[in-house]
Design a protein that fits this description.
The protein has 420 residues and is mainly beta. It contains two helices and 34 strands.
């Protein structure tokens, strides 16, 4: 009998116990995370066994909560908590709920955007909180980023994009849902000197700043992309789509967005896959939907195709099987071919926010109707409908799915529906 065999026999209890310890440690190290439009910010949720059809009255309402104030910010669900931004008496708050709808805590985050003139008709919270581990990063419409402890609601640090980073607010307020990696929080103050910045996610200290293109920020939430040669942030400003290096903020490639309208139509987050960027704007004289190729080092971005008939303000789009799906005015869900951007299919649904899970699209229309669209063997079919009758104001939020529950925010109300 060799030494290894004798060791295993002598230490059999330890040998059997070690994998359990390792599994426990791995689970303990696992970080909870949640952010804007799902795990990869692309509107796709990793859910299975969802209902194939909905009852005539819609899926079961599990719970609803009121009192989160004005706004359009979607919630973020991580582990056993839900976080959502809202407004109370013109002050931004981060709310934490358990998954039964009980309020755990709420933490103020400075003045919320209430607007003036035309923009005052769209007051309240804009951005979705970003959760990483035991910390939640939240941004007010007036540009205050706060790092909040998820278990207690205690503020760890805060940075004001205008006062601390010389940022410039836009006509409809800061709407960016900040993106966070293992080290930094990346944000867009929008100033001439500090256009973008990286902050240490544990302390809020400035890691780097860049003037980028010196272009005023739009209302886009950026995406984080690992290219073959570097990790980059891809986002939009008032007139451009561009990439910067996460290490130092170096400006890389850029693409001119034609036909900018002053009230701001560059709200959607780009979508990236296999060396290509997809983006849709809503400018009357712009390029509409575009497919762009980005080089392995991020320094070159060139147009592959555009379709100026496909326009979308802030409702998002989803890339499935290399096809681009989006809702458009006139109440259609359109399907664009990956080769040239032509429309290959469409189905009548209310124009609004779109997400995808378990081979199904969910579209939350600006008229308050929610459509479930089955996507089976390349065919679209409406297989469920729901009317959102709680809350008030515009139906602008994006739905969120977590563990078979669909969450929809409508103004002051947050609703949870069982869809599995």
């Amino acid at each position: 009998m060799n030494k290894l065999a004798r060791f295993l026999i002598k230490n059999l209890p330890l040998v059997l116990f070690f994998p359990l310890v390792l599994m426990f440690l791995m689970q303990g190290c696992k970080q909870d995370s949640a952010q804007w439009r799902g795990e990869n910010r692309n509107g796709i949720y990793d859910e299975i066994n969802l209902l194939e059809t909905w009852p005539n009255e819609g899926p079961e309402l599990v719970w609803f909560a009121e009192g989160i104030g004005k706004g359009y910010a979607s919630p973020a669900v991580a582990s056993d908590k839900l976080f959502v931004n809202g407004e109370i008496d013109s002050i931004s708050h981060l709310f934490a709920y358990d998954l039964k709808g009980n309020l755990l805590w709420k933490t103020p985050n400075g003045p919320e955007f209430m607007g003036s003139g035309f923009s005052s008709t769209y007051p309240g919270a804009r951005s979705t909180p970003t959760v990483r581990g035991n910390l939640v990063y939240t941004t007010s419409g007036m540009g205050r980023i706060a790092c909040i402890e998820s278990s207690t609601g205690s503020e760890k640090w805060a940075v004001d994009l205008i006062k601390d980073l010389d940022g410039t607010n836009n006509y409809f307020g800061y709407s960016e849902s900040v993106i966070v990696d293992e080290k930094n929080v990346y944000c867009n103050p929008g100033g001439d000197k500090i256009n973008m910045a990286a902050l240490d996610r544990k302390t809020g200290e400035v890691v780097w700043t860049t003037e980028a293109l010196k272009d005023t920020f739009s209302y886009c939430s950026p995406i984080l992309v690992t290219l073959p040669e570097r990790k980059v942030i891809i986002t939009t400003s008032r007139h451009n789509l561009f990439a910067v290096d996460t290490k130092n903020g170096e400006l890389l490639g850029s693409y001119k967005l034609e036909g900018y309208e002053y009230d701001g139509e560059h709200c959607n987050s780009p979508v990236y896959e296999d060396g290509y960027i997809y983006f849709i704007a809503n400018d009357d004289k712009g390029r509409g939907a575009v497919k762009l190729e980005i080089s392995p080092d991020g320094k070159n971005i060139k147009e592959i195709w555009s379709n100026d008939k496909i326009r979308n303000n802030f409702h998002g789009y989803v890339l499935v099987e290399d096809k681009l799906f989006t809702t458009v005015q006139g109440n259609w869900l359109k399907v664009l071919a990956p080769q040239n951007g032509t429309v290959t299919d469409s189905i009548k649904v209310a124009n609004g926010s779109i997400i995808f899970a378990d081979n199904k699209f969910i579209c939350y229309g600006t008229n308050g109707s929610v459509n479930l669209i089955d996507y089976n063997q390349g065919k679209l079919k409406v297989s469920g409908k729901l009317e959102i009758d709680k809350g008030s104001g515009q139906h602008f939020s994006h739905p969120v799915i977590a563990d078979g529950i669909m969450y929809i925010r409508h103004g002051d109300a947050l609703t949870a529906y069982k869809i599995n």
